Amino acid sequence: MDSNAPEKQRQCLGDALFLIRYLTFPAAEFAAGPAKSGLLTQHESFAILMNISSPGSWELPDYMNSETETRRVPRELLATSTGPADVDMTTRHWYDIIFSTFQLDFIFFLCN
Known about the structure:
Layout: H1 6-13, H2 27-32, H3 34-37, H4 42-53, H5 74-80, H6 101-111
């Protein structure tokens, strides 16, 4: 199997693929990026696109992230922080980086 095949990349990304807040994408950006990448199934892409266009119009698979608010970047979290205890700096804050071709290529590079 080609190491760049979407199935291989999906396997490599595992559950991280479903932590991304796809519902925060503009419809055109989602359609041109993640939906065309082959990482998501046609059913997943359709459900996401329907919910971006008309929230609540289509049932999302249970394992998909249904958040519609973008995460604040750590810099914004630090600006509003009253101390280290109220800032969650775990990797979950980094999963909402908007997909672009370059970012997908970088993820694929890490998987190979």
